[in-house]
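Per your request, structure below.
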C-alpha cells in the first residue's frame, strides 16, 4: 500500500529531461548573461520532477511556449496558433520537431532576407524565456519556483458570480504535478507563464482486494456537495499533499460515525400520499 500511495502521486517526467538535453545542445553559448547560464545549469540538473519547489519546470514551460510560437506561428497565423495550443497536436509534435535538424518550420517566413535554422530558433526562444521570467519573477532564479507558476482552483458553477464565487469555489491552491505525469495536472500554455489547472485526477483510490476493509481514497474537494458542511472542502489539502483517508465500507463503521446525514420525508407529505 505505501508503495502505491507514493506511485499514484508521482510527479516525475521521463520525457522532459531528454528534451531539455536537446534544447541545451542547440542553445548558442555566445553572449549568455549570468542569469541565462544559471538557468542552463538548473535545466541540466533537473530530473524531470514537477514539485512545487522546483525551478526547472518554470523555465521549461516558458521556453516551450516561446519555442512553439517562434516555430509555428509565422506559418499558422496568430489565431490558428492559439487553436493549435488548445489541442494535443502540439504535444505530439514537440519532441519530433526538437529532434529534426531540417524542417520547413524552422524558417521564419516573416523575415524575407534570412532563412532561420534550428539552433537560431531554439536560442532565440531561450533568450526570450529568460528575459520574460526576469520580468515576471525578478533576477534571482531561486525565486522562480513552480509553485508561483502553477495553481489549482476547483470552480463551482457559481464561479461566474463575483458575489458567490468565494463561497462555492475551493482554492486556489499551489500544487505539485504537471503535464504527462501520473499526477497529471492539465493546463494550457500561454504567454503570461501563469498556469491554471483545468483538469486532473477526479479521485484517487487504493484497494487491496485481500484487505478491502482498509481501502483508502481521497477527493479533490470533499465528500459533501453542501457548501455549509465541514466536508465540502476538507479533503482538498490532503489531496494536494498526497494523503489518503480510510474508506468506511461496513455497516458497523458507518453506524459508529458521527457524520451521518439522514433524509426523512415530511409527515404532511406521507399523510397526503
Amino acid at each position: 500500500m505505501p508503495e502505491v500511495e507514493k506511485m499514484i502521486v508521482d510527479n516525475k517526467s521521463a520525457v522532459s529531461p531528454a528534451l531539455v538535453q536537446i534544447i541545451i545542445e542547440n542553445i548558442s553559448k555566445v553572449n549568455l548573461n549570468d542569469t541565462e547560464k544559471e538557468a542552463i545549469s538548473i535545466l541540466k540538473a533537473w530530473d524531470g520532477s514537477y514539485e512545487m519547489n522546483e525551478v526547472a519546470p518554470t523555465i521549461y514551460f516558458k521556453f516551450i511556449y516561446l519555442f512553439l510560437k517562434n516555430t509555428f506561428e509565422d506559418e499558422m497565423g496568430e489565431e490558428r496558433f492559439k487553436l493549435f495550443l488548445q489541442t494535443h497536436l502540439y504535444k505530439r509534435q514537440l519532441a519530433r520537431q526538437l529532434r529534426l535538424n531540417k524542417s520547413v518550420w524552422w524558417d521564419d517566413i516573416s523575415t524575407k532576407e534570412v532563412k532561420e535554422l534550428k539552433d537560431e530558433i531554439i536560442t532565440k526562444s531561450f533568450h526570450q524565456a529568460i528575459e520574460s521570467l526576469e520580468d515576471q519573477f525578478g533576477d534571482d532564479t531561486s525565486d522562480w519556483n513552480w509553485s508561483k507558476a502553477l495553481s489549482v482552483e476547483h470552480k463551482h458553477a457559481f464561479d461566474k458570480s463575483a458575489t458567490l464565487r468565494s463561497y462555492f469555489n475551493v482554492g486556489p491552491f499551489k500544487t505539485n504535478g504537471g503535464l504527462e505525469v501520473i499526477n497529471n495536472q492539465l493546463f494550457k500554455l500561454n504567454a503570461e507563464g501563469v498556469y491554471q489547472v483545468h483538469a486532473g485526477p477526479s479521485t484517487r483510490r487504493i484497494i487491496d482486494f485481500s484487505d478491502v476493509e482498509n481501502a483508502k481514497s481521497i477527493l479533490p474537494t470533499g465528500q459533501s456537495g453542501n457548501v455549509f458542511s465541514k466536508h465540502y472542502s476538507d479533503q482538498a489539502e490532503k489531496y494536494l499533499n498526497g494523503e489518503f483517508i480510510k474508506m468506511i465500507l461496513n455497516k458497523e463503521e458507518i453506524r459508529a460515525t458521527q457524520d451521518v446525514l439522514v433524509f426523512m420525508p415530511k409527515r404532511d407529505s406521507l399523510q397526503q400520499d
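The mean pLDDT is 92.

Regards,
D.
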